[in-house]
Amino acid sequence: MNRIPFVKMSGAGNDFVVIDNRDSIIPHELTNFLRKICQRRVSIGADGVLLVEESDLADFKMCYFNSDGKEVETCGNGARCISLFAYLNGIAPDKMCFETKVGIYQSEVIKSNVRVRLGNPTQVRLNFPLQLNDGVHNVSFANTGVPHVVFLVEKLEEIDVTYVGNQIRYHKDFEPAGTNANFVQVRSNREIDVRTYERGVEDETFACGTGSVAGVVILAVNGKVSSPVKVNTLSGFPLTVYFNLAGGEVQDIYLEGDARFICEGQISESAWKY
Question: Is 63 marked active-site?
Answer without folding.
Answer: no
